[in-house]
Amino acid sequence: KHCRCRSCNSPFPSPFQLAALERQVFDFLGYQWAPILANFLHIIIVILGLFGTIQYRPRYIVVYAIWTAIWVTWNIFIICFYLEVGGLSKDSELLTFNISRHQSWWSENGPGCVRKEASMSGIKGLDNHSYISVIGCALEYRYIEVMHSSFQILIALVGFVYACYVVSVFTEEEDSFDFIGGFDPFPLYHVNEKPTNLLFKQTYL
Q1: What residue intervals traverse the membrane (predicted)?
Q2: What is the DSSP letter of 85?
Q3: What 3-state class would DSSP assign to 177?
Q4: Cβ atoms < 10 Å from Cβ of 111
Q5: Burial environment of residue 179 by CB neighbours within 10 A (0 to 12, 13 to 18, 19 or more)
Q6: Could you give the C-alpha distances from 204 to 192, 193, 194, 196, 197, in angstroms and in order?
Q7: pTM attached to this predicted model
Q8: Fewer CB within 10 Å: N-end or C-end of the chain?
């Protein structure tokens, strides 16, 4: 049996799962397919890290730690996308794989936003269509997305530090535990001695 670390049995990825699920919900509402895929992978890796912590699987926790670096990089890209850094445009269809014109759900449902639809039946070729305008937003949607990604980066960094701590504790326990005979105070002087009655039988024969 493996020696378990009592201080490491707490399910540390739980708040990370909640944050990832919250992000996934709003990306689904906005049909942001690239973030949906990234969030799905993130949720799987977080569950893997939780399983590794509970079941004493340091390798799974290492996978989670490596993923956090990728996750941080992805969220930095999202921040750059919405802030239009390096030639990126928040109005492009990059996050929807160029298959739809959907934008972030927050673009129409942010705090204070009022969504209005105006009929465009008077314009040739646009009958039965409507023009949607959003006014009164207390905070522009791109800043909400930036705050979401910044929060994910912060959580990922905390998760990385804690994952490294758990792996180090597990490694120390493995080094101090003899998987064959348990904790042995005299491992170098262990001698397989035969029973006395067996020695008598050999002498008699």
Answers
A1: 33-54, 61-85, 151-170
A2: G
A3: coil
A4: 11
A5: exposed
A6: 22, 19, 15, 13, 11
A7: 0.73
A8: C
Distance CA 132, CA 115 (A): 7
Q: Compute the distance between CA of residue 11 and CA of residue 62 in angstroms, rounded to an integer.
A: 16
First to last CA, the chain: 42
Assign 44 to helix, strand or coil: helix
Which residues, other chains included, contact 9 with Cβ-Cβ below 8 Å and sequence gap of 6+? 53, 54
Contacts of 106 (CB under 8 A, 6+ apart): 26, 30, 141, 144, 145
Q: How many C-beta neighbours within 10 Å does residue 98 have? A: 10
Q: Which helix (H) or strand (E) holds 145?
A: helix 141-175
CA distance 39 to 195: 63
Q: What is the C-alpha to C-alpha distance for residues 46 and 156, in angstroms, rounded to an integer?
A: 10
